[in-house]
Specification:
CATH topology of one domain: Lipocalin
Number of helices: 6
Strand order of the largest sheet: 1-2-3-4-5-6-9-10-11
Strand content: 15-25%
Number of strands: 11
Distance between the termini: 108 Å
CATH superfamily of one domain: Calycin beta-barrel core domain
CATH architecture of one domain: Beta Barrel
Largest sheet: 9 strands, mixed, barrel
Order of helices and strands: HEHHEEEEEEEEEEHHH
């Protein structure tokens, strides 16, 4: 008995694979590897943290401003807050190395998910590339949130929802759990740039856009940063650090130190744009009584 030859053309084979492929057949860029953070002009905000009362260039509203004015850095001494992690919109602003790796479909060799780990905040993100929908609004929020990805040219666009409340600047300015994070991850040879766009209907009047950079580090390893909370400063049970409205003595310390008008440090969307320099030129630098007394000593 003779059996006929089975012939399958290449276009037909690609069509069959594409019908069952969970994602794009070919990724636009290879992102896998170890990445060491480069901070350049972003220090000290991304290391020691921004000064109390420094809201310059932040598109915050009055509610966010009040949160910052009444916040106290002593809250970091509370045992329950010492090991609190950070969501991706802020974790990558710290001194964090990245480890990026992928899941690959064995049939199509298409990437079905990207994974990004940080060594400082124990943040382990899963970015799904299979067009799955985001969970309904009543789903629990997490530090990582729920992320899906898609390629726009050579940039991996990541959309993240269901985030817990997190920081936008480590001096009391926060992003609510209603916020959405859009990221664009772009690789250029040995360099990796992440553009983050934070939208928050509760605390931001306009999107907050920032960029962070990494350089490929072939010999680097991500070791876990183990955090063990403990009593650092004795306080009464139930103590909650805060400042009442108008009672924060450090609110204008940074402005007085660098010679910036107090009004200019209060943030708002207008402070993000070059046109604000014209308004800044009309302002008068006036130091607080406390700062003036320090200068006289």
């Amino acid at each position: 008995m003779r059996y006929g030859r089975r012939v399958c053309s290449l276009p037909l084979m690609l069509l069959m694979i594409g019908a069952v492929a969970p994602g794009p057949l070919l990724a636009q860029k290879e992102l896998s590897g170890q990445w060491q953070q480069k901070m350049f002009e972003d220090a000290p905000e991304r290391v020691a943290g921004a000064w109390i009362g420094d809201y310059t260039g932040m598109p915050i509203n009055d509610v966010a401003r009040m949160r910052g004015d009444t916040w106290s850095s002593s809250s970091w001494t509370q045992v329950e807050r010492q090991c609190v992690t950070a969501s991706p919109d802020f974790a990558y602003r710290g001194s964090s190395q990245l480890r990026i790796f992928d899941d690959v479909d064995q049939l199509t060799q298409g990437v079905t998910a990207w994974h990004i780990n940080t060594n400082i905040t124990f943040l382990n993100r899963d970015i799904y590339m299979d067009d799955r929908p985001h969970p309904p609004p009543w789903t629990a929020n997490t530090w990582e949130g729920f992320s899906t990805g898609e390629w726009e040219g050579d940039a991996l666009k990541i959309t993240t929802t269901h985030l817990r409340e997190g920081w936008v600047r480590r001096n009391g300015l926060v992003r609510s759990d209603q916020g959405t994070l859009i990221e664009y991850l772009v690789r250029h040879h040995r360099y990796l740039t992440m553009v983050t766009i934070v939208e928050d209907p509760i605390y931001l009047s306009e999107p907050l856009i920032r960029t962070s950079d990494w350089v490929q580090a072939e010999g680097a390893l991500n070791y876990p940063n183990v955090c063990i909370p403990g009593v650092e400063v004795e306080h009464e049970r139930g103590w909650v650090p805060n400042y009442l409205p108008g009672k924060n003595p450090y609110l204008y310390e940074w402005a007085d130190r660098v010679g910036i008008p107090h009004q200019a440090t209060r943030g708002g969307a207008e402070t993000m744009y070059p046109e604000y320099q014209k308004k800044l030129a009309t302002m008068t630098v006036v130091k607080t009584e406390q700062s003036a007394a320090k200068g006289a000593q």
